[in-house]
Design brief:
3-stranded parallel beta sheet, 353 residues, Rossmann fold, 5 strands, Tyrosyl-Transfer RNA Synthetase, binds tryptophan, 2 domains, two-stranded parallel ribbon, mainly alpha
Length: 353
């Protein structure tokens, strides 16, 4: 069986370091592993519109931003097809048929949808389109016959729901759709990178993100003002590394060679952590080290982003061509689905049979 990746992001803002360690970095590694026959990376504008219906300009203006972030991280258009969701009409078509295979109460039980409804204060006024987005996400995944979906942990319920739709479809209409597997980062710190304020979720509205396009001085300021262990008041005090964003970021970003380069008095991260826990290591010193680490990790991304920013017509062309390739693939699946559902009336005079 072909090994196929599909994944994507909503274009509601620039991507941040949480997206990077949670999914983007892994995608680039998978892309470069040579293990995959086809790779599709989708800019999910239609999904972004499900809760931004009145702000289409916000979604539109972030399409190129997200594309630039992808290219900056090392997504290579020669190896991966980058495309825009709303350019693929088959995705909407599939969604409409999948809706018949899912109950309202099943969507209501989806923990990610539940949390998002609460976060947006939608309780009494959920747009139907927003409510159905897990179903449309199943269409995104199955249209490309994805076998692997690398996403952040918050997307696990979407994958679960997609697999249920695949089972149901195949049971009702015969084996047609491919069942996908989720792929999560294996580093725990990368699963859910907290905001710089220690809050569980990085979000633009909380102002606790470090963006991939951030300038060095902004990175420094954000790192130096990060939340740490509130009980670690003086350097001598023993400190906690659990739930301490500074150490979680080090777990996510630090490479062994950075100690030699920036903090040679420690051999590795374990030694640094042990000293912090013992007491005698101040937050400022740890933050300065983290700043060096973040600067090293983000510099190549920012520089590549600036190069692509000078070539926006080319980026636009990548998206246009990618969307054409993606539509051809989705059309093949759509034809299989129509055949399975026996709604392919005009193929071989089927309606008369
Ligand atoms: N829901 C994803 C997000 O919030 C975006 C997305 C839409 C997606 N369709 C997808 C991710 C299909 C993986 C597969 O970022």
């Amino acid at each position: 069986m072909k090994q196929i990746i599909l994944t994507g992001d909503r274009p509601t803002g620039r991507l941040h370091v949480g997206h990077y360690v949670g999914s983007l970095k892994g995608r680039v590694a998978l892309q470069n592993s040579g293990r995959f026959d086809e790779i599709y990376i989708m800019i999910a504008d239609a999904q972004a519109l499900t809760d931004n219906a009145e702000h289409p300009e916000k979604v539109r203006s972030n399409i190129l931003q997200v594309a630039l972030d992808y290219l900056a991280c090392g997504i290579d258009p020669a190896k991966s097809t980058i495309f825009i969701q709303s350019m693929i009409p088959q995705l909407t078509e599939l969604t409409f048929y999948y809706m018949n295979l899912v109950t309202v109460s099943r969507v209501q039980r989806n923990p990610t949808v539940k949390a998002e409804i609460q976060m947006r204060n939608f309780e009494a006024s959920i747009p139907v389109g927003f409510f159905c987005y897990p179903i449309s996400q199943a269409a995104d995944i199955t249209a490309f016959r994805a076998t692997i979906v690398p996403v952040g942990e918050d997307q696990a319920p979407m994958l679960e729901q997609c697999r249920e739709i695949v089972h149901k479809f195949n049971a009702v209409y015969g084996e047609t759709l491919t069942e996908p597997e989720i792929m999560l980062p294996d580093n725990r710190a990368c699963l859910r990178l907290p905001g710089t304020d220690g809050k569980a979720k990085m979000s633009k509205s909380l102002g606790n993100c470090i963006y991939l396009s951030e300038e060095p001085e902004e990175i420094r300021q954000k790192v130096m003002s990060m939340y740490t262990d509130p009980l670690h008041i003086r350097a001598q005090d023993p400190g906690h590394i659990e739930d301490n964003p500074v150490f979680i970021y080090l777990d996510a970003f630090c490479r062994p060679e950075y100690f030699e380069q920036f903090l040679p008095e420690y051999a590795n991260l374990d030694e640094l952590k042990a000293h912090y826990q013992r007491g005698g290591l101040g937050d400022v010193k740890v933050k300065k080290f983290l700043n060096n680490v973040m600067q090293e990790e983000l510099r190549p991304i920012r520089e590549r982003r600036k190069e692509w920013e000078k070539r926006l017509p080319e980026v636009c062309e990548i998206l246009r061509k990618g969307s054409e390739v993606a539509e051809r693939k989705a059309a093949e699946t759509m034809a299989d689905v129509r055949r399975a559902m026996k709604i392919d009336y005009f193929e071989d005079g089927n309606l008369l049979k």
